[in-house]
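Incident log, structure service

09:12 report received: a user says their structure output differs between two submissions of the same chain.
09:20 pulled the input from the user's history:
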Amino acid sequence: MAPYESDDSARAEEADDRFAGRHKAARYVVPVAVVGVAAATIGLVPALADSGDPDLPKVTAQQLIEKIAESDVQQLSGTVKISTDLGLPDLGGLESGLLSGAAGEHGGSSADPQSKLLELASGTHTLRVAADGPDRAKVSLLDDAAEYSVIHNGKDVWGYDSKSNEVFHSTSGESGQTGEGKAPHDVPATPKDFADEVLKSVDDTTSVTVDGTAHVAGRDAYKLVIKPRQSGTTVGAISIAVDAKTGLPLKFTLTPASGGAAVVDAGFTRVDFSRPSASTFAFTPPKGAKVTEGDDLKGGESKGDGRKDFEKALPKGHEDSADGLGGSKTVGEGWNTIVVLDTGGEGLPPGASGSTGNGDVDGFLNSLGDHVKGKFGSGTVFSTRLVNALITDDGKVYAGAVTKAALVKAADAAQ
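09:34 re-ran on a clean worker, output below:
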């Protein structure tokens, strides 16, 4: 089926009218959202598609965006496949140590969602999801011999790791609000989570078209395609399969400008819109399980947690944060937005251009690092297939879903 496209000028005007009031930061939210997704490195593999394209009434891109915005699915259950391809090298087991360290920051509980869900950073995984309104949601990460679940039931949020028989418990106010089909801590878990972030920022730096139809998880769907109009970004295109009946995004695919496999590919393999059983969201700690309460961790976190400072420094929603590593700012616009941080002149972490004494760390850093020079001086660019970061020798950090050349140009322009 040939693609059909809405009129660009009409689409831009309609999109501005609909989104400008709610999303003042449209100039940079899409790239920052992409950075956030890649930082969490949570992607979903393609949903199993039936053969043949369904014959559906034609719609414009604007109509399809509105259909997504108006979608009000309150109940669902289904299965999602998860995979990530950032082009990172084999860490030789280093990632396990990093995950263990992250768990240690939160009281040593392997069931804490904030550290456990980092396992989605690589490899292929299966998620089982369920939701019943805004106060009941469950996301289960299935392994060969174990299962990890996050359950939101009313005010309670539970995390359970069957492998270690550990439980983490907090209230929604402590652990972060959960919503329809979404895990705590704002971790994207379904195609809708990803689509919501991207659609916040439809503006004149973006081309939006409808590219035919598809079958996804047994459902008829339209294919919405979002492409940067700008050069210099590492994002090639984003495709969202939208359920023709409910408007729910069923599949989300982000492909890099360099081509090849998708970096983020989100899709249901099975979905059911009937109400899940109430027992789906019931949880009682198993006998003998170690239970960690969220209250026990308050005030015990390190004030010098650089990871949290970095998260604070990234723009969120409509705000620029002045917290974090010397504060932050953004340069550029649209898909070419670059987040700039100042570490206070510390430059590269010890060993980034030499030796840490840890072979795994050295191998990882050296495999990603590319030394560059310019008017700004010299530094090292750390690259993935989507997000690149330049760390200058005088402690500036330039990061975004842009090319290495764009980072060097931004650093030069700052002089």
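09:41 both user submissions now match this output. Likely a transient worker issue. Closing.
09:42 reviewer note: The chain has a mean pLDDT of 74. The first strand starts at residue 75 and ends at 84.
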